[in-house]
Amino acid sequence: MMVHSSLRSIGTVEGGAETVVDALLESLGPQGTLVVPTFTFSAPSQPGFIFDPARTPSEMGAISEAARQRAEARRSIHVFHSIAAIGPLAGQIVAAGGASAWSDNSPMGQIANGEGHFLLLGVPYTRLTAIHLVEVRVGVPYRREIEVEMLVQRPSGALEPVLSTSMPPRGGFGGNDFNRLGQLLEEEDLVLVGTIGNAVARLVTGACLFESAIAHYQKDQQIFLRRPGVKEASLSRGHTINEGDRVMCVVDPQGRHNRRPGGE
Which of the 8 DSSP states describes residue 168? Predict the structure, then answer.
């Protein structure tokens, strides 16, 4: 199960992000594998940056970073779009595929094409990055493929140049809005929606996500894109709160949020 999350959306959590990671692992059980995005957007632009899977922080929130730091966690070496995993399939998932984080054989592709699930914990569908895999599979015209070579530090301390394939948008791109697809998925009863604290939680299987997303794209090739003048579509369940680069999906917008330093 891959989890996109916001700690603050849940409310005050005793023990913070560590408690949430413990709860996710307990819910999955010993046969389950927890996966979190540990993307690094800003760090690679710094002069002399070297990606160290063991030390480079995740930029995807407190829960993601807490999972990444677990001793048993394994992390992929995609410089911009790495993932971390804990559980019996962790090694297989992080080593999957090649240079691309967005191919069918990539770590996220393993989840989507297997019996995996995606959980949105207190965040809307705009954070469901697995839909980028669908964009690549159907060959959307607004993305292009580039390869970037950067240094990665191996556990031995050796530095190794590694290629990472990225799919940035072409010029004139107006932005994605995956909420449009997400609302349709909910109307089709393909998403299990509940609450954890003040957070709205949404669970969908990778198989249902991919099958439905491709079907909707075949009907409407603009389905993954923003409508003119609309930043993101509204969802019928929960309230979306945007705070700068952070976004939360909550039951009560007046509810208390976890505001610990460094938390999200």
Answer: P
pLDDT per position as a tens digit, 59-91: 999 999 999 999 999 999 988 899 999 999 999
Distance, in Å, from the CA atom of 99 to the CA atom of 102, rounded to the nearest integer, reads: 9
- Reading the block at residue 46, the tokens are 């710094």
Q: Are strands 2-5 and 117-121 parallel, antiparallel or unpaired?
A: parallel
C-alpha pair distances (Å), 155 with each of 36, 37, 53, 64, 249: 21, 20, 9, 21, 38
Token pair in block for residue 41: 């957007």
Give the global pTM. 0.94
The DSSP letter of residue 43 is G
Asked if residues 65 and 43 have their Cβ atoms less than 8 Å apart, the reply is no
Q: Which long-range contacts (CB under 8 A, 24 or more apart) does 24-29 make?
A: 25/86, 25/87, 28/1, 28/87
